[in-house]
Amino acid sequence: MAHELTVAGIHELLEHYENALYVQVRKEQRTDDAYIEDRFAVPEVKNPHSIYRSGIGRRMVEAPAEQLITSNPQVFVKTGNQEVTKRLQAAITDWIQVLKRQNPNPFKETVKNLLGRGESYIQVVHNEDWVTGQKIRKGPPVLFMVPDPMVIYGSGEEDANGVPLKLFVKYERQIQDVIYKHPD
């Protein structure tokens, strides 16, 4: 299925992903959500009895993520040069320290998405505040966001590392947000 890289072609391809490729996946994820969020129907329970919602489904999904130890994450890099290796490890370990303080925690959110939704994505976003006008670096050069997989539509074609060749992130935004981030 060939699609041009035009606005109309992108809309056509996204519609194909939503209505053909991902229709069963999203249906199953919504069913799983009903159990995780403890809001599934129980037609067998009739008056005068009531349903007891314990929330155990959410705890079953989130418990493994809470077991991740992120108090002292470390990075190990291999290069041919020991000096370069030390500098890279130090820089990336500093970035990891920033990430572990991020709310929500991207390490735990990745595990929760994998267990609850069956898939997880990490979106790498340029950090606009990394180098200021005074050439002062703040945080890592990129930010790692963990979007809800329900808004991600990846193609079936993947590279050698399992990364989809085409990827859509679909979500509603307020026009004010777009104007604020991109004033020109």
Any overview of this molecule?
By secondary structure, the chain is mainly alpha-helical. It has one domain. Helices cover 42% and strands 8% of the residues. The chain is built from six helices and four strands, in the order αααααββββα. The strands form two sheets. The chain has a two-stranded antiparallel sheet with strand order 1-2. A two-stranded antiparallel ribbon has the order 3-4.
In whole angstroms, the N-to-C terminal distance is: 35 Å
Percentage of residues in strands: 5-15%
What is the CA-based Rg, rounded? 21 Å
Q: How would you spell out the order of helices and strands?
A: HHHHHEEEEH
Q: Overall mean pLDDT score? A: 85
Number of strands: 4
Low-confidence stretches: none
Q: Main β-sheet: number of strands, strand sense, barrel status?
A: 2 strands, antiparallel
Helical content class: 40-55%
Q: What number of domains?
A: 1
Number of helices: 6
- Rough outline: globular
Strand order of the largest sheet: 1-2
Structural class: mainly alpha
Set down the secondary structure blueprint:
Elements: H1 7-21, H2 23-36, H3 56-66, H4 82-101, H5 106-116, E1 123-126, E2 142-145, E3 152-154, E4 167-169, H6 175-181
Antiparallel strand pairs: 1-2, 3-4
Helix pairs in contact: 3-5
In short:
The protein has one domain.
Give the tags.
8% strand, 6 helices, mainly alpha, globular, two-stranded antiparallel ribbon
